[in-house]
Design a protein that fits this description.
Bound molecules: NADPH dihydro-nicotinamide-adenine-dinucleotide phosphate, ligand LL5AMS7Z
Number of helices: 10
Subcellular location: Cytoplasm
Family: Belongs to the D-isomer specific 2-hydroxyacid dehydrogenase family. GhrA subfamily.
CATH topology of the largest domain: Rossmann fold
Structural class: alpha/beta
EC number: 1.1.1.79, 1.1.1.81
Protein name: Glyoxylate/hydroxypyruvate reductase A
Strand content: 15-25%
Shape: elongated
Strand order of the largest sheet: 8-7-6-9-10-11-12
Largest sheet: 7 strands, parallel
CATH class of the largest domain: Alpha Beta
Radius of gyration: 21 Å
Helix content: 25-40%
Number of strands: 12
CATH architecture of the largest domain: 3-Layer(aba) Sandwich
Function: Catalyzes the NADPH-dependent reduction of glyoxylate and hydroxypyruvate into glycolate and glycerate, respectively.
Amino acid sequence: MDIIFYHPSFKAASWINGLQQRLPQATVRQWQPGDNAAADYALVRTPPVEMLQGRSDLKGVFALGAGVDDILTQLKQHPEMLSESVPLFRLEDTGMGLQMQEYAVYTVLGWFRRFDDYQQQKQQTLWQSLKNYRRQDFTIGILGAGVLGSNVAQSLKVWGFPIRCWSRSPKQIDGVTSYYGADQLSDFLSGTQVLINLLPNTPQTVGIINRQLLSQLNSGAFVLNLARGAHLVEEDLLAALEAGEIKAAALDVFVQEPLPETSPLWSHPRVAITPHNAAVTLPEEAMDYIAKSIQQREAGEMPEGRVDIVRGY
Ligand SMILES: NC(=O)C1=CN([C@@H]2O[C@H](COP(=O)(O)OP(=O)(O)OC[C@H]3O[C@@H](n4cnc5c(N)ncnc54)[C@H](OP(=O)(O)O)[C@@H]3O)[C@@H](O)[C@H]2O)C=CC1
Ligand SMILES: O=CC(=O)O
């Protein structure tokens, strides 16, 4: 069995060794331009078109992340890149759920306990206790109730906040109110105090967090974008912050990454920024997952995490 590996920044040698140990029957190699030799599986992040093109014999392509929007964008531009018969898989959880939980719990509790306000008071050497939010009014709305959205819902539920989620199909998550489909989006937004985005980036979700959507949240709501920069219209967020409709935002992802030095988001006192690392690919967990998936595929089973290319996630 032959496996080809390509990632623009990961250390190829440690991935190749790690996969080789997990799959002793396989020969794993780093793909280089011009390598057209046979391969059964490909592990990739934003692969060059020529790496996958013409490989209709592949038994699977594994994306080395949870989101596959980069690969699907390339595929739209170069439909010849991936034969329709080749399944594309993505990482499901592999330790990203816990990382998202950490980020969301830290941020939401900080806003709930008004640490952002106290940080600003500190700049003014101001010793003043502020009125607390009421827990029952601090409704958290999660856009996306998939692997990561449901993880985040579970972790925030234990703090006693009302939790709701919005997805394409209805969900049954204990203690979480499910809204689904375009028809129920307004009901989901109405009464939401903290909006957390964990949607995939698809033609249906691009630009979804715009002025019109933000205006339907509670006045003084908070926004946490953990998914993709393309979901959020940054100028609309800035306008809503200026108008006081949105109190604060925490952003991990941006339309342009790295975020340009000239972006007004950098200097905004009520915007927190992290460099797209809310949940990173953990090599050991990811290799365990991919090795298991390859074994399942070799046994004639279809592993979890198959991307529906038409649906876009
Ligand atoms: N910032 C970071 O470091 C990271 C960001 N991410 C981002 O997080 C995203 C989510 O990951 P994950 O939870 O694993 O993805 P999943 O595919 O498991 O979940 C996606 C959720 O979004 C819902 N959804 C998709 N399209 C729509 C739509 N048009 N309307 C309503 N709901 C919709 C799905 O609904 P349904 O369940 O009904 O299908 C599902 O609940 C990734 O795509 C990636 O972009 C991921 C990892 C790290
Ligand atoms: O943003 C990261 C991912 O895995 O998707």
